[in-house]
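quick one before i forget lol
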Amino acid sequence: MFSSALRQIREHRGLTQTDLARRVEMQPSSIGHFEAGRREPSLQNLIKLADGLGCSLDALAGRCAKSNWDLAYRRGAFDAVEQMKAATRDLRKSSFVIEEHPDE
């Protein structure tokens, strides 16, 4: 049930496996393994997936009607978080340093 629910919710959100993997900081192959039923995620990864998809753990377990998938989902909020994560990664990769100066 989990594997089919994961795929259905991901597709309903208009996300590719790679999109979801980036959103939850996993490898795209992990998402593929979960959807194919070859692997089961840990509880920590289940929570990441639910947060990344904006759904409940019940929805991922297939215990929730499709009409209830969107109750916690706010596309704008998740997009903003993704932009912030990307900006943070970019800053970490750059050599930009912010120096603190005491008040004069």
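fyi The radius of gyration is 17 Å.
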